[in-house]
UniProtKB/TrEMBL annotation:
Top-level EC class: transferase
Gene3D superfamilies for the chain: Vaccinia Virus protein VP39
The species this protein was found in: Glossina palpalis gambiensis
UniProt-listed GO biological process terms: piRNA processing; RNA methylation; siRNA processing
GO cellular component: cytoplasm; nucleus
Protein name: Small RNA 2'-O-methyltransferase
Length: 328
């Protein structure tokens, strides 16, 4: 991700907004992300713009002088040739809702112009005519005030053009994509700040991923009583539940079964067969011991002959060996 602006001071002041948050370290991304804050012009054909997929120019073109604005389409649609380009600019028709404008007649002191919807459409149509590999659609941001929507149709506060390269929207390209073979402008964007966000890189093989998921599945469900076959003393786990994960890894049903068998997992029909391990007996022993403790408590209370003892918090496990008294 590259943030480009001509004003180095502004970039230096606000570069901290690109710094990763604590949450970015706690919940790492699945894909790498590098953010580069660069000083440069939107009209420069520079090496850093090669292989850029999306160009976003929000509220920028109205700040450009006519000679600079004229060069923007050549660089963006002729050199960069992104899959998607988004440009927004104020809609001058919406200005009727503002109580006052600045001395230059615009919303901002640095605006060189503010276009109507027709003027903006003429600019975008000219781009699509010069660069027929692109199609354009229009959006808007900022509705008129609720009490004035019926006054007249003035559109949105900000008008937006969404340029899509035709191959992105399943349309044929009119010309070859050879823009990045054009000569560079001979300059380079100045690097103000660069940061690589933390991300999790899974270096396991495909088989290792599937086996880890299978182990999690087996350990999670093998204690579920609905999967325990009492007659055979085995667990029967439906391995088809693993297929959702396997499909995400482009693993077929046959490949999944091979991975299970390679790890000595027995498969019968639609089920993974797991034996009744010794630790199952340990769980049963715990229940037996709990029952025994309860039985001993009852016997002790009966010997005391006092029904109130049973209502106390006394536990025989906490009684001392030499204790001979009954506490009420």
């Amino acid at each position: 991700f590259q943030q480009v602006d001509i004003d180095e001071k502004v970039l230096s002041v606000f570069q901290q907004r690109a710094v990763p948050l604590v949450s970015d370290y706690l919940h790492k991304r699945e894909e790498p992300l590098r953010i580069e804050v660069l000083k440069g012009s939107i009209t420069d054909s520079v090496e850093q713009l090669r292989n850029v997929d999306v160009v976003i120019g929000l509220e920028i073109i109205e700040h450009l002088h006519a000679d600079v604005l004229e060069k923007v389409p050549e660089n963006i649609f002729g050199f960069v040739q992104p899959k998607l380009a988004i440009f927004s600019t104020p809609n001058s028709e919406f200005n009727v809702f503002f109580d006052s404008l600045l001395g230059n007649g615009f919303r901002h002191f640095d605006h060189k112009f503010e276009w109507s919807r027709a003027e903006f459409r003429a600019w975008t149509d000219n781009i699509c005519h010069r660069y027929p590999n692109y199609s354009v659609a229009f959006l808007g941001l900022g509705n008129p005030p609720d009490d004035k929507r019926d006054v007249e149709d003035v559109g949105f506060a900000t008008q937006m053009a969404l340029f899509a390269r035709n191959d992105l929207i399943k349309k044929p390209l009119a010309t070859d994509l050879n823009g990045q073979s054009l000569p560079l402008s001979g300059v380079k964007y100045k690097e103000i700040y660069t940061v690589d966000f933390p991300y999790y890189k899974d270096e396991r093989t495909q088989d290792e991923k599937i086996w880890c998921e299978a182990q999690y599945f087996i350990n999670r469900y093998r204690y579920a009583t609905i999967y325990f076959n009492v007659d055979r003393h085995i667990y029967q786990l439906p391995w088809l539940q693993l297929m959702d994960f396997a499909r995400k890894e482009n693993v077929s049903q046959e490949e999944l079964l091979d991975i299970l068998r390679n790890h000595n997992i027995q498969v019968e029909g639609n089920f993974i067969i797991m034996p009744e391990y010794d630790d199952d007996d340990d769980h049963g022993l715990c229940y037996e011991l709990n029952d025994l403790n309860l039985e001993l408590n009852n016997e002790y209370n009966n010997q005391c002959g006092n029904g109130d003892v049973a209502s106390t918090a006394f536990n025989i496990e906490n009684a001392k060996d030499d204790s001979e008294e009954c506490w009420d």
